[in-house]
Amino acid sequence: MARILLTGRSGQVGSELLKTLARLGEVVAPVRAEMDLADISAVREIVRNVRPRWIVNPAAYTAVDKAESEPELAYAINRDAVRAIGEEAQAIGAGVIHFSTDYVFDGTKNGPYFEEDITGPASVYGASKLAGEQALTASGAAHMIFRTSWVYGATGKNFLRTILRLARERDVIRVVDDQHGAPTWSRDLARMAAHAIARVESVAAGKSLSETMTDWGGIYHAAGSGETTWCGFASEAVSLACEQEPGTRFAEVEAISTSEYPTPAKRPLNSRMSSAELMMRFGWSMMDCRDSLHEVLAELRADGPYFSIAMAW
């Protein structure tokens, strides 16, 4: 049973990983006060004290718009902390699972992005995440980087929960309809990561991870399959909510363009990513975004009426 160091235990993906990784070994998941990624010395100290076989890092600076005005903090967490994790992992022979984003691309490609496509982030957030990928690679640590997009789930701050709240409060919700991608369920992402670790360990058979990961490491795309827009996702969610609560009045979803909803950070118009390499190497197929939406809505419904959702996105 491996010892696994997990960051970001309270985040959308981290909270799911806390459960999925438990079957693989002892999970050490410090709270932020114990392991603040903005404090590089604290990051190094935790890794040295825990001495894990795996470090799983879903934690990140994800305030896309705010990053434009505080790039130093974004880079400290998304690049410098990742570099420290990589260097410490390399020193003890640990493997690293790191999560990245479609924002490393400029979003102008026609069709889905593949792992070998040229990167070109158009925001501070995207640039800081790409810098984190590069820092981890340069550290020499055995690693796998999973790029994902549009993460959501039944808990945490995310687009779906906000839409369901606003649909009860307003008559009309205006949502961008020219940004294309596929929502990714946080639980599916966590299950995938646990599967990847288990697959590598089955091949390692007691050998060092640095030796084994020569064949398995690198960058993989891990985003929900299928395709939609933010408006399409919102419309589908509201439509399903209407079916489940026929006596409740929900807002109309109105499509708008990106230019009608200006933001400090530029959003990719194309966030589509092919996860074919993930399937080929690990035998894992990411859930279709519509199937995962049904599951998440069922979970939310089981927890209580949608009007109890009150949070900002």
Q: Tell me roughly what share of residues is in helical segments.
A: 40-55%
Average pLDDT metric: 94
**Radius of gyration based on Cα positions:** 19 Å
How far apart are the termini?
38 Å
Fill in the CATH topology.
Rossmann fold
Shape field? globular
Which homologous superfamily in CATH is the superfamily?
A: NAD(P)-binding Rossmann-like Domain
Protein described:
With 313 residues, this protein is of the alpha/beta class. It has one domain: NAD(P)-binding Rossmann-like Domain (Rossmann fold, 3-Layer(aba) Sandwich), CATH 3.40.50. Helices cover 42% and strands 16% of the residues. The protein has 10 helices and 12 strands. It has helices at 12-20, 40-50, 71-92, 124-139, 159-169, 186-204, 209-216, 230-244, 276-282, 289-303; strands spanning 2-6, 25-28, 54-57, 95-101, 142-148, 151-152, 172-176, 180-181, 184-185, 218-221, 228-229, 252-256. The strands form 4 sheets. The protein has a 6-stranded parallel beta sheet with strand order 2-1-3-4-5-10, sandwiched between helices. Helix 1 (12-20) links the parallel strand 1 (2-6) and strand 2. Helix 1 (12-20) packs across helix 6, helix 3 packs parallel to helix 4 and helix 6 (186-204) packs across helix 7. The radius of gyration is 19 Å and the shape is globular. The two termini are 38 Å apart. The relative contact order is 0.16. The model is unreliable at 305-313 (pLDDT under 50).
